[in-house]
TrEMBL record:
Residues 108-188 form a coiled coil. The lineage of its organism: Bacteria, Bacillati, Cyanobacteriota, Cyanophyceae, Oscillatoriophycideae. Signal peptide: none annotated. Belongs to the PspA/Vipp/IM30 family. This is PspA/IM30 family protein. Residues 216-260 are annotated as: Disordered. The keyword Coiled coil applies. Residues 246-260 have a biased composition (Basic and acidic residues). Residues 230-244 have a biased composition (Low complexity). Keywords: Coiled coil. It comes from Floridaenema evergladense BLCC-F167.
Length: 260
């Protein structure tokens, strides 16, 4: 392999790489549609020109064919008048026009085939352009979606490794820890309150029982006799009612304690 071939290949490879990197899919799609529309305009002009030529050839063919028929009629007229030479001249002219008509007919057939082919190509190109426009819109939408997805992935990757995202995650962890501590404190306070209320309820039961006992003693005091070994004062009427009631309660309590 020669040196110039290697250099040429390197240059072409680099140029192809530059062109590939410079290609914007959206712009290329738009330019492709523009190019196809320009081809469509040129094809329409070619079809119009071919149709015009075909019509011109058709007119010439009709004229030559008419002239051939006219010379045929003149030859018959001359022959009917007995002028054979004139009839022969008319037939020569008719032959010349017939040959021209045959040549024009061949050209006309070729032009008709060409026009039909151009028309089919025109219809096919119009269909392809319409389809290309539809695909262009779809491809542009897909390109936009792909770019958006790429930007999103890039942003997610960037934020997941950035200091801002790390700080955000640390603050979130602190908030979660603070909430956990608050919940724990609330549970501890709730347990303490439950214990306090339990103590109060227990104390309330003792007080209720003591009050009930006092009520029972107070209600049965008038029917109780004095304990042995005690001297009941005959002057109870002169003592205060509250002291007498207390003494009775005390005596009754002592009696109950002895019976236990």
């Amino acid at each position: 392999m020669g040196l110039f071939d290697r250099i040429s290949r390197v240059v072409r490879a680099n140029l192809n790489d530059v062109v590939s990197k410079a290609e914007d899919p959206e712009k290329i799609l738009e330019q492709s549609i523009i190019d196809m529309q320009e081809d469509l305009v040129q094809l329409r002009q070619a079809v119009a020109q071919a149709i015009a030529t075909q019509k011109r050839t058709q007119q010439q063919y009709n004229q030559v064919l008419t002239e051939a028929n006219n010379w045929q009629q003149r030859a018959q007229l001359a022959l009917s008048k007995g002028d054979e030479n004139l009839a022969r001249e008319a037939l020569v002219r008719k032959k010349s026009q017939s040959e021209a008509a045959a040549a024009l007919k061949t050209s006309l057939d070729q032009q008709t085939t060409t026009v039909d082919t151009l028309k089919r190509n025109l219809i096919a190109l119009e269909s392809k352009i319409s389809e290309a426009k539809t695909k262009k819109d779809m491809l542009k939408a897909r390109i936009s979606a792909a770019k958006a997805q790429e930007q999103l992935q890039s942003a997610v990757g960037k934020y997941s490794t950035s200091g801002a995202m790390g700080a955000f995650e640390r603050m979130e962890e602190k908030v979660l820890m603070a909430e956990a501590r608050a919940q724990s404190t609330q549970e501890l306070v709730g347990n303490d309150l439950d214990q306090q209320f339990a103590d109060l309820e227990a104390g309330s039961d003792v007080d209720d029982e003591l009050a009930q006992m006092k009520a029972q003693l107070t209600g049965s005091a008038p029917n109780q006799a004095a304990l042995p070994g005690t001297t009941q004062s005959t002057t109870t009427s002169t003592s205060s009612p509250s002291s007498s009631a207390v003494d009775k309660d005390l005596e009754e309590l002592k009696r109950q304690m002895d019976q236990l």
